[in-house]
Design goal:
Number of helices: 13
Number of strands: 22
Helix content: 25-40%
Shape: globular
Distance between the termini: 33 Å
Radius of gyration: 27 Å
């Protein structure tokens, strides 16, 4: 129970919100202001335009919530533009936009023209707030919106009927601690330093991950062909009839680029085997039954989809998008997943990502979950008397990374499909089993080290946020 004065009611009579508001007002060590009181002008919504493909950085970028990552940074891709560019929605230096609806409500982005030189407008489900710099530093407010204090306000404020929503009026009434400028600057420096250290860790992780390809290529004696100019002459090719008869004719497969790539693989000094000759089982997945099915005989599984394939590491089974499905016992028995199995994405992909990503089932994964895999995924079981499973995974991953699998696919209705007959017919370079183990285990160690750096990067931000929270709650002690 709690008491609240009539004059303290702000816009809505919601017990949860009013209880939060009463507690919040006195919890900070510094004075608290309504958000509207630290703005230089009223907030306004963005453009309601359809996004279209942006082909050049000279085009105005149309920023949507999907262009902003979990840390409020703009993604590096070209993103989208719009047919209609209205200057009313142009972003200027230090403009702060916050999402008003959907699962990303509360996500924010600060437009810093020293980091983003593109001309930008913003979408209608974002709200633009211009900070009065005499009262608050824009970066201080941006970083405050990443703290648990803001998360508490958001959870107490957002309306859950339909989709989550916080409108501009509710943002205007948000209470924000406003310490002296010197303290705000200190907080900005703490967060800036943390993000720079995070960037350095992420860069080191990326360099390690990129080194795996080079390491495998060197160990296997694959000399990648040089990238040739995209001239008419270089796009012309000749294909013998014997190489085409009985199959499909995909011009890309016979271009100089891919012929040179497959020649480089063939010229490796090690013996080769077809993929189909080093596996004991291959089977397509099953989407199973809805989790709400009540039959007690059904087996509940975390069902792996292409969504769980992590392009940088392996499988991400800890995300909040994972799906659990139910299977009849005989169906589950066919697609049960075990340690050392290899999963292949056989349908999906995108314009810039060929289908055929691979994942390796670690023993820890099957200890934590009962696993199955969806109908867009294919499972391979390696014959361990012939090949080391982790090596085969690393090799197939390498083939995807160097785009060898790009010519083993078809595309229908926007979905790419792996041609399994051709995929199983690809040559696998087969050094001695002990060499396979050495190569695979070193690649795994590199990837594990990169993952540790990623975890450390996230911890740096969490530590900085805790430090800032303490300053705001207890004062600059």
């Amino acid at each position: 129970m709690f008491l609240i004065n009539w004059g303290e009611i702000v816009g809505r009579m919601d017990p949860i919100f009013m209880k939060y508001l009463k507690e919040e007002k006195n919890k900070f060590a510094y004075s608290v202001k309504k958000f509207i009181d630290i703005l230089s002008e009223p907030p306004f919504y963005g453009a309601n335009e359809a996004g279209i493909v942006r082909t050049s950085k000279k085009q105005t970028r149309y920023i949507r919530i999907t262009d902003i990552d979990e840390f409020g940074r703009l993604t590096d891709e070209l993103g989208a533009t719009s047919e209609k560019i209205d200057n009313r929605y142009m972003l200027y230096h230090d403009d702060l936009v916050i999402a008003r609806s959907g699962n990303t409500v509360g996500k924010s982005y600060l437009h810093d023209t020293s980091k983003v030189s593109d001309s930008c407008i913003f979408a209608g489900y974002l709200i633009n707030f211009r900070i009065n710099k005499q009262i608050a530093l824009p970066y201080y407010i941006f970083y405050y919106l990443q703290l648990s204090s803001f998360e508490c306000w958001k959870n107490a404020t957002m309306r859950l009927a339909g989709q989550p929503n916080i409108n501009a009026q509710e943002y205007k009434n948000m209470l924000v601690p406003v310490p002296p400028m010197s303290i705000q600057q200190q907080i900005v420096e703490i967060m800036d330093d943390a993000y720079e250290k995070k960037r350095q860790k992420e860069q080191a992780a990326n360099e390690l991950l990129n080194s795996i390809n080079s390491y495998l290529l060197d160990e296997l004696g694959i000399v990648m062909p040089l990238e040739e100019e995209n001239t008419l002459k270089n796009r012309m090719f000749v294909a013998g009839s014997n190489s085409v008869l009985g199959g499909r004719f995909d011009p890309k497969k016979y271009t100089c680029k891919y012929q040179q790539l497959f020649s480089a693989i063939e010229n490796s000094p090690y013996r080769k085997k077809y993929l189909r000759d080093i596996i004991t089982l291959d089977i397509s997945g099953n989407w199973g039954l809805d989790e709400t099915e009540t039959d007690s005989d059904l087996v509940t599984c975390l069902t792996i989809r292409a969504t769980e394939f992590d392009n940088r590491f392996n499988l991400d089974l800890e995300n909040n998008r994972t799906k659990h499905r139910k299977y009849k016992p005989d169906a589950y028995e066919k697609i049960a997943v075990s340690a050392n199995d290899i999963l292949i994405e056989k349908s999906g992909g995108s314009d810039d990502q060929p289908v055929g990503r691979v994942a390796f089932i670690e023993s820890e994964m099957v200890k934590r979950n009962t696993l199955a895999f969806s109908n867009f995924i294919h499972k391979l079981v390696v014959d361990e008397s012939v090949a080391y499973p982790r090596y085969v995974f690393e090799y197939l991953r390498l083939m995807h990374n160097i785009k060898a699998t790009e010519v083993m696919q078809t595309q229908t209705n926007g979905i790419r499909n792996l041609i399994m007959r051709e995929y199983f017919g690809q040559a696998i370079i087969m050094p001695d089993i002990n060499i396979q183990k050495r190569i695979a285990n070193k690649a795994a160690k590199i990837r594990a080290h990169a993952y540790e750096l990623e975890i450390e990067a996230g911890t740096i931000i969490d530590t900085a946020k805790s430090q800032v929270e303490k300053i705001l709650l207890e004062g600059n002690t």
